[in-house]
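Hi R.,

Here's the chain you asked about this morning:
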Amino acid sequence: MLRRAVEWLDSGYKAHLFTVVNTWGSAPRLPGALLVVREDGHLIGSVSGGCIEDDLADKARNNELPQRPTVIEYGVSNNDAHRFGIPCGGRLQIFVEPLNDSAHFLLLLQNIQQRQLIKRSVSLSTGQAILSQVQPEGQPRIEGDWFHSYFGPQWRLLIIGANQLGSVLASMAQLLDFAVLICDPREDMRAEWHVEGVEWVYEMPDDAVLEVNPDAFTAIVAVTHDPKLDDMALLEALKSNAFYVGALGSRKNQEKRRERMRMFDLSEAEIATLHGPVGLSIGSRTPAEIAISILAELIQVRAKQLKAKVTIDETINCAA
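And the predicted structure, written out as tokens:
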């Protein structure tokens, strides 16, 4: 989204950036949701998934959007809620700012590519924007004269195993905006891989994990069903900062795997973080069903951790 905004600015267009700050009631989007509206009404992103975007596009075409940072609200009255399709009781507070400097957002994108968590602070009185590296510290908020929002790296999924399950999992994960990396040292499996959009890591599984350098935005799932390969990846993955580590296999095989893990330099706490059998228990049997169960659990774990840390939500992936 931000890349597209930079392209518009570099092409001579004017644009506005909208960020959901707070929601009350049954608001359709969460704090951190982004929308960029070009002066001709062309837009990308969403703050409501409905008529609010249409209203903002009309205002852009009519040159009615504010020319300095400000805060606007929708859904304050029942008439507004009905007019803009906001669910009963819903209300949105949105920070809006005119965009002028593409270099600022290029710098932001460069920081995100380096997998850094960035706080962007904008002064309501002057429009000055400041970028700073931070640890997770909250949702978008207004603090005195400053509006603070957060941007971070794209969620990643490293899949160990280029089999049928790995292929289906890679395809589905990309639909959920994960950057997918795949590792499989078996040449015959690599030769039959036909999923586009993934990044290959041409290392043995343990070295692949080290090369990827998992952070808190990375998940690792081992699905080769070959202990020699899966265990190699898990020995490094369970010591990493990955927010999710899972492995395919029955409960019986998972107990055997945990016994093997204890033979190496892994603590009981590290071994306990392994999700195995991988995925939510939904009675899945086919590769597609298993992939759904894995991604469902992965999303569930991610959401719980974000909530526990009171950290950012949708802003994380908006730079892609």
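The chain has eleven helices and 15 strands.

Let me know if you need anything else.
M.
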